[in-house]
Structure formats: structure tokens, C-alpha cells
Amino acid sequence: MPLLRVLHVPVACCALESLAAASALAELGVELADGLGESDPASADVMVVSGTVTHAMAATLREVHARLPDGARVVAFGACASTGGPYWDSPTVVQGIQSLFPVDRFVPGCPPRPHALVEALTDLFDDTVGRR
Amino acid sequence: MSPAEAAETSAGPLPAARRRGTLALIPDKCTSCMICVRECPDWCIHIESHTETIPAPTPRGRARTVAVLDEFVIDMGHCQHCGICVEVCPFDALAWVAQAAPAEASTAALRHDRERLAGLLPQPPRGTEGATAGNTAEEARR
Ligand code: SF4
Ligand code: SF4
Ligand code: SF4
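Above: the input entities. Below: the C-alpha cells describing the complete assembly.
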């Protein structure tokens, strides 16, 4: 059984980097599940939103978030998920996912390096994966 | 740099200027010229400055007006790490450091202020002008 279950929501280019962290995360006992696929959000400990979120997509993301168990954490991976990033003046882009639900960690970078996800998760879960 | 980061490149660790970890500032070199602010594609550099008048050094000289930097903020939550600001700064006041900025619990904490940006690099001793041996941005990048 994994130490930590991550519901990974890949919505744009940042996802290439967060997915590249999968093997390093697996070594730490962290499992990445596809948040837009078949996996059940109810079994996740943390949701990682990776990429640009458009207003058209916001409702889907809110639905996925609503199905997370109580106490699940949220990580915004990259500039777009954190603030809208390079699309700071776009009327179609959500200016940071904290406008949709509470966020626990904002990872800077456009995109951040894969290792930034490992660091954000070990920091956020310093009592479990961070100990390893 | 952590071993995992070093392993990111098969050729070994890249120099800071190519790794594009995070941005640093040498405030004493910054003339508040605003070039970086205007060239940044994300408009994520914020500068506050005021002007001061330096009196004429000789009876026949003229007083000079200079810009003095008050605050310098880079919003790393928006920054796309393109390096344009580093490239365009005519005074080498901006530089890359290899270690990426950490994730934060709020977007406000991703706004790196002058103190934080300056704390990442050895600063030239006060009162020296421009590049001083051992303190150029080029050397600091290594
Ligand atoms: S932060 Fe940059 S790399 Fe990430 S999704 Fe936005 S544009 Fe793409
Ligand atoms: S690296 Fe690019 S986006 Fe970031 S502050 Fe400099 S010019 Fe702006
Ligand atoms: S371009 Fe350089 S000198 Fe001009 S305001 Fe920016 S950092 Fe300062």
C-alpha cells in the first residue's frame, strides 16, 4: 500500500514535469493516480493540479475536489495553477486555483522542475513521506 | 543542490545561468531604470524608487538627479523563468542562482522582495560602484 496517494490532475504543459517525478515519488512510496481518468478521488490524500485551468474547466475541477475525502490537501503545481501565470491577462484563464478551493502549497516555476513536486510533497507531508 | 537535483542532467549540474533556479538581485547595482519591468513578459517585476538630488561638486558644476531604489519585488508565482530580465539589465543587477525557490503556503509568500532577492547572492561592499573584483554578477552566478 502506498504511503501517500496523489490525485494528479494534468491540465497543461506543467503536467509533463510533474509526471516526470512519478518514479522518484514511487521510491518514496507516493502513488500518482490520474485525476481525469478512472481513479477515485475519495482515496486520495492530496490533489495536485498541474497546468493552466480555464473557466470552462473550473466546474470539473470543483467536482473532483468535492469528491476528495475530508482533510485532503491541495497543491498548485506551477505558475498557471498558482496565479494564472503567463495568462495573467487572459479572460478565459482562472487566476489561480485558490479561487476555486483552498490550496496548501504553491509551487513556483513555468514549469517547475519535476523535483519541485517531490520537495513540495515531502514538505507538506513531513510526518510521513518527508521522514523517508 | 540536492543529489536528486544534480541527477537531473546526465552531464552533471548545470551552471546557475542555465539551470534557471530562481532570480537574485544586487540592489547596489540597480539604477531603477525599469528596463526589466517593461521587458518582463509577465509584468511580474515591481519597482518603487524615488529621486534624490546630489548637489554640484564644484561651484561651476551642476546638481545631479539620481534614482534611488526603495523596493524591488519579483512575483515568482507569475514568473516564467524566461531570463529576459537578466539578459536586458544593463547593469548586471539581476542574476540566476541554481537552487529553485521553494513551494509556499500562500501566493503572497511567492512575492520575493528586495531583501529576499538580495539574500541569495554575496553583495558588493557598500559604497563601491559597479563591478568589484569577486562581486560581479558573472562571478556570483558560478
Ligand atoms: S506554468 Fe508554464 S509550463 Fe506550467 S502550465 Fe502554465 S504555461 Fe505551461
Ligand atoms: S524571468 Fe522572465 S518572467 Fe521572470 S521576472 Fe524575469 S523577465 Fe519576468
Ligand atoms: S534593468 Fe537592471 S538596473 Fe534596470 S531596474 Fe531592472 S534590475 Fe534595476
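Note for the figure: The CA atoms of residues 75 and 111 of chain B lie 4 Å apart.
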